[in-house]
């Protein structure tokens, strides 16, 4: 999908376009800074990608950016502009200020089924939109879901879907993703498609409802074995008050066979989601099960250890979700894969002031 001439704006120095405010984050191949456009108050999250990381992949990058430029969805962080300097490619992304879903889960300590269903519905609609365009995210996880604003009712936004697009036949083979969220077919090194995103959404849904991941082990080999067997449980007491409808929803997403796994469209038709209106609706629905409003307390490592519950300790929220995994893949001819792991992305071609000259919550990560 050639972009033709003018798909990126040439600049000698990006600081001639933006006033760089502060560093927001770093990924494996890029860094993100808060930038304000000269002559306006408009703020963007500026992703700075060294050209040396793109060598030999220019055509693929151009193809993928052409797709990104077409994406317009209220729950997907938008690509606003593209600049090129002698040393870097710059992607000016929509700035969202509500922080990661990961952090909000930690801060809140619980999600009701109602809250979780509203959130997952937004993500399902956005991922279904991407799938209709032939795009597979391949790294859905709470760190890549951002809130648009700090307010409680803020909409959720998907970020870091990189520059990835499936081929015309809908099949990919590059092994990539984050270990705890990766689908069995990827681990088996089989050709895969959109169903890998459905699997990841099943993992996220599970986490939201109980507070810990369905698959976890400090040993990666054992973790992968759990995933390959689709070996997970609805542990008591954390799942005792979760509805059967919600459990059924998760079972269909964490289906080992990608051919039988729910598509996003099928998931949206599940009773668990059908009973929920879009978050923009003013009315609050009546749930068919009283338990849906129950607050879901998170398991604690300390309690598990004191009770001698090694399984609970192993699967505790803090230990499981705060682990930092290295990326499982890098640049290929099909993908410019961005991870939220805090790894250096190379020196920026301009000085970044210390935080404090502008107040903006941290959010985007590369």
TrEMBL record:
<dbReference type="GO" id="GO:0005524">
    <property type="term" value="F:ATP binding"/>
</dbReference>
<dbReference type="InterPro" id="IPR017441">
    <property type="entry name" value="Protein_kinase_ATP_BS"/>
</dbReference>
<dbReference type="Pfam" id="PF00069">
    <property type="entry name" value="Pkinase"/>
</dbReference>
<dbReference type="GO" id="GO:0005634">
    <property type="term" value="C:nucleus"/>
</dbReference>
<keyword id="KW-0547">Nucleotide-binding</keyword>
<dbReference type="InterPro" id="IPR011009">
    <property type="entry name" value="Kinase-like_dom_sf"/>
</dbReference>
<dbReference type="InterPro" id="IPR000719">
    <property type="entry name" value="Prot_kinase_dom"/>
</dbReference>
<keyword id="KW-0418">Kinase</keyword>
<keyword id="KW-0597">Phosphoprotein</keyword>
<dbReference type="GO" id="GO:0005516">
    <property type="term" value="F:calmodulin binding"/>
</dbReference>
<keyword id="KW-0067">ATP-binding</keyword>
<comment type="similarity">
    <text>Belongs to the protein kinase superfamily.</text>
</comment>
<keyword id="KW-0539">Nucleus</keyword>
<feature type="binding site">
    <location>
        <position position="52"/>
    </location>
    <ligand>
        <name>ATP</name>
    </ligand>
</feature>
<dbReference type="GO" id="GO:0005737">
    <property type="term" value="C:cytoplasm"/>
</dbReference>
<dbReference type="GO" id="GO:0004674">
    <property type="term" value="F:protein serine/threonine kinase activity"/>
</dbReference>
<protein>
    <recommendedName>
        <fullName>Calcium/calmodulin-dependent protein kinase type 1B</fullName>
    </recommendedName>
</protein>
<keyword id="KW-0723">Serine/threonine-protein kinase</keyword>
<keyword id="KW-0112">Calmodulin-binding</keyword>
<dbReference type="InterPro" id="IPR008271">
    <property type="entry name" value="Ser/Thr_kinase_AS"/>
</dbReference>
<feature type="domain" description="Protein kinase">
    <location>
        <begin position="18"/>
        <end position="273"/>
    </location>
</feature>
<keyword id="KW-0963">Cytoplasm</keyword>
<keyword id="KW-0808">Transferase</keyword>
<keyword id="KW-0106">Calcium</keyword>
